[in-house]
């Protein structure tokens, strides 16, 4: 395969060959200083898409450029120069990969592949004698390899075993199609086979291209001019070619004004969300308060002392949440004015509860105390002596005995 055939079989590659018509292009900078692009059919759509970034970032991105563009196809001269650069790059890569394969064959079998020879290493005068062995093994500064590179303009440096192609172009001319049937080569050069011709109309005036250069220390999306000397524009993959009447890239102030307005709306939404979350937490707290009362029953409806004791046992057994149980007790004591609320609890829980009640765990003045629990801590603190007395009257027993407890006779003295 020669250049003429390559040009016919493989059109110059752009990322979006099917794009046609007029667009609005906005290139902006992300937090990592890389360019990103918005491509829309109208200014209003561009403005809306740009404003949506306010929901993602907390700052106004720097605008690299705003352009009204028309997607085009470069002139035949530029396309020819682009094809020649593609041919040189792809065939150079192909020759290098074929040479690697020849090196592996020689290393494993000692067989020299057809079309390859061994280079006689010729050291450069500048090569230090102490490094001569390493340079000889890599042909890094071999004068014979350098002469072949200059003569052919291709990658023909010998590898670690001194193997090099005698006629590099013959590899492309005679072995390209056969190599493309191999899995590794087909995967590596599949982008050429899948390339589509540019659909847009040819434009002979000034041409620009939008490129994507992503990776570490890269620029992202860029916009730049296309010339005969530089048919691919800035560094990176060509997304598309275009024409614009104004390449200055000046962005209308309306874009940033609209973005800042969206930032203000976002801040209002955040405040509203905070308010709703606070209301939800308050509702959950009130629901928890009702739950505490429901655990023991409502005083004045016939609930007796033993049934309250049984309810506390159930809360201890199934919720296993000491803080909740303490709050239940405090609520009961505050609601009834009772000095004690005896019930049967396990010895392990008794020991833990006594230690906590006598300590500062429920101190509402402690900065570490959760705000929504401070009112309960205050009730527990106010009724601390009564709670301690309740534990003393409750006594201790085993979990097995707790499970066997049944409600006792009604104690009418506890009713309101």
If you had to describe this structure to a student in words, what would you say it looks like?
The chain is of the alpha+beta class and 416 residues long. The chain contains 15 helices and ten strands. The strands form three sheets. It has a six-stranded antiparallel beta sheet, with helices on one face. A hairpin with a 6-residue loop joins strand 6 and strand 7. It is extended. The chain starts with a helix and ends in a 12-residue tail after the last helix. The C terminus is likely disordered.
Please report the distance between the alpha carbons of the first and last residues.
104 Å
Q: Helical stretch count?
A: 15
Q: What is the gyration radius calculated from CA atoms?
A: 40 Å
- Helical fraction: 40-55%
Please name the defining characteristics of this protein:
416 residues; alpha+beta; 6-stranded antiparallel β-sheet; two-stranded antiparallel ribbon; 15 helices; 10 strands; extended; disordered C terminus
Write the layout of secondary structure elements.
Blueprint: H1 3-9, E1 21-29, E2 35-40, H2 43-51, E3 63-71, H3 76-109, E4 116-118, H4 132-138, H5 143-152, E5 163-165, H6 168-180, H7 183-188, H8 190-193, E6 207-213, E7 220-226, E8 237-244, H9 253-296, H10 305-319, H11 322-336, E9 345-346, H12 347-358, H13 374-382, H14 384-394, E10 396-397, H15 399-404
Parallel strand pairs: 9-10
Antiparallel strand pairs: 1-2, 1-3, 3-8, 4-5, 6-7, 6-8
Helix pairs in contact: 2-9, 3-6, 9-11, 10-11, 11-13, 12-14
């Amino acid at each position: 395969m020669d250049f003429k055939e390559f040009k016919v079989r493989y059109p110059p590659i752009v990322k979006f060959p099917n794009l046609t018509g007029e667009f609005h292009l906005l290139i902006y900078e992300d937090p990592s200083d890389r360019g990103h692009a918005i491509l829309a059919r109208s200014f209003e759509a561009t403005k809306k898409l740009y404003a949506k970034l306010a929901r993602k970032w907390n700052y106004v991105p720097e605008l690299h450029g705003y352009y009204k563009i028309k997607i085009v196809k470069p002139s035949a001269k530029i396309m020819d120069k682009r094809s020649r650069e593609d041919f040189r790059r792809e065939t150079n890569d192909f020759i290098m990969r074929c040479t690697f394969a020849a090196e592996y064959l020689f290393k494993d079998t000692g067989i020299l592949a057809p079309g390859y020879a061994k280079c006689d290493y010729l050291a450069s005068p500048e090569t230090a004698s102490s490094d001569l062995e390493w340079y000889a093994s890599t042909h890094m500064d071999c004068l014979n390899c350098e002469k072949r590179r200059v003569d052919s303009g291709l990658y023909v440096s010998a590898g670690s075993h001194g193997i090099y192609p005698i006629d590099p172009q013959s590899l492309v001319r005679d072995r390209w199609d056969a190599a493309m049937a191999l899995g590794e080569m087909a995967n590596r050069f599949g982008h050429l086979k899948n390339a589509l011709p540019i659909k847009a109309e040819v434009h002979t005036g000034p041409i620009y291209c939008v490129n994507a250069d992503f990776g570490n220390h890269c620029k992202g999306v860029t916009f730049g001019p296309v010339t005969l000397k530089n048919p691919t524009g800035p560094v990176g993959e060509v997304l598309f070619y275009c024409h614009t009447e104004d390449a200055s890239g000046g962005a209308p102030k309306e874009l940033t004004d609209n973005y800042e307005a969206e930032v203000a709306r976002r801040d209002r939404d955040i405040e509203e969300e905070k308010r709703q979350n606070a209301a939800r937490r308050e509702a959950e707290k009130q629901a928890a308060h009702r739950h505490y009362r429901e655990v023991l029953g409502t005083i004045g409806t016939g609930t007796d002392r033993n049934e309250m004791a049984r309810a506390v046992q159930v809360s201890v057994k199934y919720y296993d949440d000491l803080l909740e149980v303490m709050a239940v007790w405090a609520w009961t004591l505050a609601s009834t004015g009772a000095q004690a609320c005896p019930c049967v609890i396990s010895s392990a829980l008794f020991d833990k509860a006594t230690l906590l009640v006598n300590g500062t765990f429920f101190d509402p003045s402690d900065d570490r105390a959760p705000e929504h629990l401070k009112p309960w801590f205050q009730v527990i603190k106010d009724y601390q002596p009564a709670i301690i007395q309740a534990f003393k009257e409750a006594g201790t027993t085993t979990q097995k005995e707790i499970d066997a407890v049944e409600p006792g006779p009604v104690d009418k003295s506890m009713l309101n």
